[in-house]
Amino acid sequence: MSTSPRNRTVVSCTLLVVSLGAGVTACGSGGHPLSNRPYDAADQISFNTSTGGGEKADPDKPLEVTADDDGRITDVTAVDAAGRYVAGELSADGGRWHSTSPLAANARYTVRVSTEDDDGAPGRETLTFHTGRPVTKKRLDVTFGPEAGRYGVGQPVTADLSVPVKDKESRAIVERALKVDSLPSAEGAWHWVDDKKLHYRPKEYWPANATIQVRSNLEGIKIGDRLWGGTAKPLRLTTGDKIVAVTDAAAHHMKVYKNDQVIKEIPVTTGMPGYDTRNGVKVVLAKEGTVRMTSASIGAADFYDLTVHHSVRVTNSGEYVHAAPWSTGSQGYANVSHGCTGMSSGNAQWFYDTINEGDIVQVVNSGGDTMAPFGNGFGDWNLDWKKWSEGSALLGGTKQAPVHTEKARLRPESV
Fold it and tell me: Which tens digit of pLDDT belongs to each residue from 167-216?
């Protein structure tokens, strides 16, 4: 064993090397240890998993790589056949590396280890191994929503889990594996609505005419005690133009914007006192066309049973934007509805033809409460970005957002 001091300058160079032989000659030439091809470091390092004989590694255990006294580890990369990298930590003395993220079950891994000996000469060893199947059969499957298609810029992405996930560490594993990519790009985050549901939205609305790809890398990953990641069907969404309809309930007026330019102004009527329309941002849930609306379910003194046309649903509890020819004398002047936003038949038909699922309908200056973020449709945008981020296991912990159940105002039935 050489007693000459190591040249620590070359250590920083080798730390930049990720793949075999990459950049090693750049640090020196002619007789310098790093000018040599990496030696076989098989006898200098050891793994805590089998390298042959058909034996499979236990995915419940972390991967460990250790170096003997004649060398040190400078870099480790571990990746499975699906391209998922394993995070890990290297000790300060280079004697041990261990994984810090879970291994996938029933997967094939390639591990590349870079080393150096006491003279600073570089070594390399590559290991391939397979993990076995998890002992438990409990799986967490993910169902993404909405259905694939074209939506407005306010449409959240949803993830429904087949098994509840409660603890912080397991939620972080799940959230880290649920990928949402958009082109053009948009900063966004997942928010845990409850133990089995997540919503994803950008910090601002989605870009107009964007493509959104949603997928899961959870399959085979250990999430928690006796719980492993299962399947998920990828999802592709696109957005159209940015359509935002803003109703000022106090002014009895709606402005419709397309890509931030006003394209129409419409006189409207909203909820009368006692039936005030909810304030806040609502995402269009559906275009339902002709709907029968009755007040029987809310026990209103002025009972009604109406067939309503050009109906656009914005809450699960029965709030719509629709044609209201019976109230044209009040539109633009007074609020006389039972919570919906009404307009003339001509304006309602234009609105129905212009608006799409996922577009934004916002109400301001109403006497009503603000729409709850969850539990009555998509009120996600009524949380500011700070509050939204607090619902992420990666950005702000696992604080669960309250789910509000609101009293139904109208009970529609398809005509």
Answer: 999 999 999 999 999 999 999 999 999 999 999 999 999 999 999 999 99
Token pair recorded at residue 415 = 């005509």
Both structure tokens of 221: 């990953």
Q: How many CB atoms lie within 10 A of CB 33?
A: 17
Distance CA 133, CA 270 (A): 59
Other C-beta atoms within 10 Å of 190: how many? 24
With a CB cutoff of 8 Å and minimum separation 6, the contacts of 343 are 254, 266, 267, 268, 269, 321, 322, 323, 324, 331, 351
CB 254 within 8 A of CB 262: no
Residues in the chain: 415
pLDDT in tens, 13-46: 333 333 333 333 334 444 555 456 777 777 788 8
- Give the residue numbers marked as catalytic: 322, 340
Distance between alpha carbon 267 and the CA centroid of its chain, in Å?
38
Give how far Cα 104 sits from Cα of 58, 130, 221, Å: 10, 10, 4
228 touches 220 (CB < 8 A): yes
Q: How far apart are CA 63 and CA 90, in angstroms?
A: 12
Torsion, Cα 263 268 270 273, to 10 degrees, reads 140
Q: pTM for this one?
A: 0.72
